[in-house]
């Protein structure tokens, strides 16, 4: 905004209109610091890098579009077009590089201090249509024989490329001739893909809820599926299942003969017990007679002692 300072409405009391504008009256330039080298033919401008370069001082890459305060000066003429040269300092080191305009080729040329990154597109390698240069155009205008030969070459190129162009045109018409059909096909593919994604998301959410997982699940791989089929897992029965099996085993067990050794099931442990022989008890009559003789013997001994 420095160049607009002379456009305000304030004029000092000692201003003399005969001198000229405010800049002449104060002895300053409208561009201020940008015109400090104007007596040398140099103007400070804001220059934007036209392409990618490598700085020769620090070997760092400077991308296209980076802006610098450059010293602009006129170094020559290309016909009626002036040729300008720009000198600027690298923002990463103390190196200076210079770039000039090339009106003949509509390009910029690096004079010193840097080198261009070669990533330019060559249309000849890709068989693109390239406009004729000025020398060729001039010969076509002046030389009739050259114009005839040039036209013959163009006709030969067109005949060679005609079958390929026809095939490409037919393939393009077969695919995109009906816009409604192409749009319907595309929407159907997207709809099918969304349905598959919804089913997969539902299945993953159920699995994460059942296994109490909070991590995202990845897609299944055929190798993982094959390895999982080869593995076998043996899980131990729960207490309730073992109790149920034990009760069923007791119900299916046949009744045992009292004269045979018994087998008792006790929570999976087999115990065997053998019944002892029955003790032979005396009969009731014999037991009564023996008791009577014992009582009489006791009484007889008592009376004799008395």
Structure description:
The structure is a single chain. The protein is α+β, with helices and mostly antiparallel strands. The protein contains seven helices and ten strands. It has a five-stranded antiparallel sheet, with no helix packed on it. The chain has a three-stranded antiparallel sheet with strand order 3-2-8, with no helix packed on it. Strands 9-10 form a two-stranded antiparallel sheet. Strand 2 (53-55) and strand 3 form a beta hairpin. Helix 2 (134-142) crosses helix 3.
From the N-terminal CA to the C-terminal CA, the straight-line distance is 159 Å
Query: Percent of residues in helical segments?
Result: 40-55%
Largest sheet: 5 strands, antiparallel
Class from helix and strand fractions: alpha+beta
With helices defined by DSSP (H or I, 4 residues minimum), what is the helix count? 7
Radius of gyration: 56 Å
Average pLDDT metric: 78
Task: Indicate the proportion of strand residues.
Answer: 15-25%
Shape: elongated
Strand and helix order:
HEEEEEEEEHHHHHEEH
User: What ranges have pLDDT less than 50 throughout 5 or more consecutive residues?
Assistant: 264-292, 297-306
Q: What order do the strands of the largest sheet run in, or round the barrel if closed?
A: 1-4-5-6-7
- Count of strand segments: 10
């Amino acid at each position: 905004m420095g160049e607009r300072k002379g456009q305000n409405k304030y004029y000092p009391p000692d201003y003399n209109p005969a001198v000229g504008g405010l800049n002449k009256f104060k002895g300053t330039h409208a561009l201020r610091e940008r015109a400090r080298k104007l007596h040398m033919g140099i103007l400070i401008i804001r220059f934007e890098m036209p392409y990618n370069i490598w700085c020769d001082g620090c070997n760092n890459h400077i991308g296209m579009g980076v802006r610098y305060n450059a010293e602009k000066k006129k170094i020559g003429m290309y016909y009626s077009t002036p040729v300008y040269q720009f000198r600027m300092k690298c923002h990463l080191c103390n190196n200076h590089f210079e770039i000039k305009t090339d009106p003949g080729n509509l390009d910029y040329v690096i004079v010193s201090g840097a080198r261009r990154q070669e990533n330019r597109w060559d249309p000849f390698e890709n068989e693109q249509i390239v406009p004729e240069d000025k020398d060729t155009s001039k010969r076509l205008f002046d030389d009739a024989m050259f114009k005839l030969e040039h036209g013959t070459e163009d006709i030969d190129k067109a005949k060679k490329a005609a079958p390929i162009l026809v095939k490409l045109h037919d393939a393009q018409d077969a695919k995109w001739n009906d816009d409604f059909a192409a749009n319907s096909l595309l929407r159907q593919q997207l709809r099918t893909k969304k349905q598959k994604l919804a089913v997969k998301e539902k299945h993953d959410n159920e699995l994460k809820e059942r296994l109490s997982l909070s991590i995202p699940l990845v897609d299944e791989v055929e190798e993982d599926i094959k390895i999982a089929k080869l593995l076998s897992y043996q899980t131990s029965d729960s207490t309730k299942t073992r109790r149920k099996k034990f009760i069923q085993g007791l119900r299916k067990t046949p009744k045992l003969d009292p004269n045979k050794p018994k087998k008792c099931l006790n929570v999976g442990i087999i115990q065997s017990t053998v019944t002892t022989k029955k003790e032979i008890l005396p009969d009731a009559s014999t037991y009564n007679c023996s008791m009577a003789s014992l009582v009489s013997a006791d009484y007889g001994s008592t009376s004799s002692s008395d």
